[in-house]
Amino acid sequence: MNILPKKRWHVRTRENIARVRRDEAKAKEEETAKEERVKLAEKEARRQLLLQKSRGEFQTTSFVPLDSSEKPCQSGHVNFFEDLEEGRAELKQTNKEREKEVKDEKEKYEKQIGYLTYLGQDTNEALGKKSWYEQPPNRAQDIKEVSLKSKLREDPLVLMKKIGEQHKKARAAVVEARRYSELRKEFFEDVSRQSKKRKIPEDIVSPCADKEAEKQRKLEALRAERLRREKEERRRSEELLAKVIGGDEKKQPPKESTRRYNAQFNPELAKQNYSRR
């Protein structure tokens, strides 16, 4: 149902359910009253019929009632089962099975819509169910042992075996390392022994020495060429600076006696080495 439950016109609100119940009770009362009237009419008709039959059998012309409303008294013994014999007692009784069925249907409907609730209606006793802790375990299906990994991990025998295997591996590694070091030592000793026994011939040594000397000569030549270029570039820069300053005269380098510092780099460019005019 798409109507929101909080709406006033919803079918299953408490007010609407109570109103429906009142209407049903009122209709039931009206139907019961109608049935009672029918039963009363049938009872009166049967009574009139019996009275007519009894008046036909017995002559009551000589009997004069004192009151017009008083009914004539019948002679004879008292019959306490007159209602049962005439069927009037059955009309007063109700059908208990039918009433029980109606009550059960009404209770079932009110439980479905959530209007009628009982304390403990959702318990296992009321529903006829059992919780998992109330049921006995099925040993046939539970083949695997519970927490087997943790038990094996914490088992002392398993730990002892594991430690023993680790010690064996460590001893094997130490033995292997010692053997490797001994073999390596023997190998280098053999190599050194053989190198001492053999001498390198001079025809093999001389080409190597010539190559090293040739390499050194090339390096020296390149270094000298670099120094020469640097000196030439320095001279050109000095001439350019002299032209920019405006002095055509070439400044003479100061004498050794005019130098203020003994270890001076590029003394010809230092300003303090020249006399002020």
Automatic annotation (TrEMBL):
Residues 209-259 have a biased composition (Basic and acidic residues). Residues 190-277 are annotated as: Disordered. SMART domains: Cir_N. It comes from the Eukaryota. The keyword ATP-binding does not apply. Keywords: Coiled coil. It holds the Pfam family Cir_N. Residues 8-44 form the CBF1-interacting co-repressor CIR N-terminal domain. It comes from Dendroctonus ponderosae. This is CBF1-interacting co-repressor CIR N-terminal domain-containing protein. Residues 24-53, 81-112 form a coiled coil.
